[in-house]
Amino acid sequence: MQITLRNGAILARHSAPLPITIQGMAGSGTLYIGEAREAVELLPGTLVTIETGIVHEIEAHPAVSILLTMFPGA
Q1: What pTM was estimated for this model as a whole?
Q2: Alpha-carbon distance 72 to 6, whole Å?
Q3: CB proximity list for 12: less than 8 A, separation 6 or greater
Q4: Quick check: helix, strand or coil at residue 17?
Q5: What is each CA distance from 64 to 35, 37, 42, 58, in whole angstroms?
Q6: pLDDT for 73
Q7: In a structure prediction context, what are the per-residue pLDDT tens digits for the chain, which is 74 residues long?
Q8: Which residues contact 28 (CB under 8 A, 6 or more apart)?
Q9: Can you spell out the DSSP letters for 21-71?
């Protein structure tokens, strides 16, 4: 699914019940991963894999569009 965050919006900390990938499609933002909040810059073409249950959060700078892919049965 494609998700777009605008005006500095934040997708609050959460975890996924499945392995996922997050790919930057447009704009820019920051992806924070894990309890240590490791920061990854989200730009078009950035691709990040996140395992099941890992806490993450996304912040738009000022807008970011991502493609989220879930992997059921992985």
Answers
A1: 0.94
A2: 29
A3: 57
A4: coil
A5: 23, 19, 8, 9
A6: 82
A7: 999 999 999 999 999 999 999 999 999 999 999 999 999 999 999 999 999 999 999 999 999 999 999 999 86
A8: 41, 42, 43, 60, 61, 63, 64
A9: EEEEEEEEEEEEETTTTEEEEE-TT-EEEE-TT--EEEEEEEEEEEEEEE-
| Residues 66/25, Cβ–Cβ less than 8 Å | yes
Do residues 2 and 60 lie in contact, with contact meaning Cβ atoms separated by under 8 Å? no
Whether residue 44 has a cis bond before it, omega within 30° of 0? no
pLDDT at position 7: 97
Question: Could you report how far apart the first and last alpha carbons of the chain are, in Å?
Answer: 18
What is d(CA 59, CA 2) in angstroms, rounded to the nearest whole number? 15
